[in-house]
Amino acid sequence: MLSRKGIIPEEYVLTRLAEDPTEPRYRARERRARFVSKKGNCNVAHKNIREQGRFLQDVFTTLVDLKWPHTLLIFTMSFLCSWLLFAMVWWLIAFAHGDLAPGEGSMVPCVTSIHSFSSAFLFSIEVQVTIGFGGRMVTEECPVAILILIVQNIVGLMINAIMLGCIFMKTAQAHRRAETLIFSKHAVITLRNGRLCFMLRVGDLRKSMIISATIHMQVVRKTTSPEGEVVPLHQVDIPMENGVGGNSIFLVAPLIIYHVIDSNSPLYDLAPSDLHHHQDLEIIVILEGVVETTGITTQARTSYLADEILWGQRFVPIVAEEDGRYSVDYSKFGNTIKVPTPLCTARQLDEDRSLLDALTLASTRGPLRKRSVAVAKTKPKFSISPDSLS
Questions:
Q1: Cα(98)–Cα(107) distance, rounded to whole angstroms?
Q2: Cβ within 8 Å of residue 155, ≥6 positions away
Q3: pTM of the predicted model, to two decimals?
Q4: How, if at all, do strands 297-305 and 282-291 pair?
Q5: Is the CB of residue 241 less than 8 Å from the CB of residue 260?
Q6: CB-hemisphere CA count at 13 Å for 9?
Q7: pLDDT tens readout for residues 257-281
Q8: Is the distance from CB of 55 to CB of 65 less than 8 angstroms?
Q9: How many CA atoms lie within 13 A of 83 on its CB side?
Q10: pLDDT tens, 309-346?
């Protein structure tokens, strides 16, 4: 009916009817597991940890590493438990001194206006959070009550320092600042100064600077030693360069960081045909620096699998000068364009430099040839015949 009305072409309807409904239309593409996700999270699951007590030796770090619901639950329970514990102590002091017995109002109590556990709980809250409503207070009658008052104040200060410090550290963690440090979605391999280079773009969305920013890169792949030992995550450090040289960068505007693929590079034998999702290759990029406003060291990470590396592409410029200042167009942050690049490995390019010469000659002849053809096709607007000259 839909094909008769012209909504769906008849050829498409016949094709869909001829398909086998039992066969799946789409198959999930198999892809190797990431060691580091695009957002910088390490994709590692720790199992069968027997020495769980080691986490309790550093309670503060354990509390900071917990998730927010667990941290807030511990924050609330620590205060409630301390209030209830000292409320029980104040109630026992009043009970032992006989302040809860009716008809003995002439005796000076240890703590005034404590007649039940509820009033002892309220006094415990007043002591620990230093509210002091004025209805209850410790007298000179019981030295034990004065000692408990001192102990509760010290315990309350310790709980406040630990829990408030934990909340502050969770809100000011280093990875929060790393959320505004961005990397290009894809990396590229192209020519620069006659050498194949691995390039990526990094930028900072905030105006506050990252002081002493350094960048590192590692290649992670599965290798086998000559002795037959299989290393599932073999990490190799490779140098990266920027416009000023070295690893230290001045990240006031987006920069293109590149690695020259030479004989010492683990990418020396990487070919364009190897850039597929089955290739066992992952390149991890780590940017580290000190936050200017807080002084906390932050670290941003990302990774590129083989199918996220574009061969023969180059990043488009995004920094321009407008009205006496430089402006950055982040809408083109990850945009690339195709450029002439030899379809061979860096080893093959070093062994046969004629591949680069032929590529350069072809790129220079291309525009001239097109221009000559265009000129040949154009017709003159007027002509002078021989008869007019006679």
A1: 9
A2: 82, 86, 128
A3: 0.68
A4: antiparallel
A5: yes
A6: 3
A7: 899 998 888 899 999 988 888 888 8
A8: no
A9: 20
A10: 999 999 999 998 888 888 989 999 999 999 989 888 88
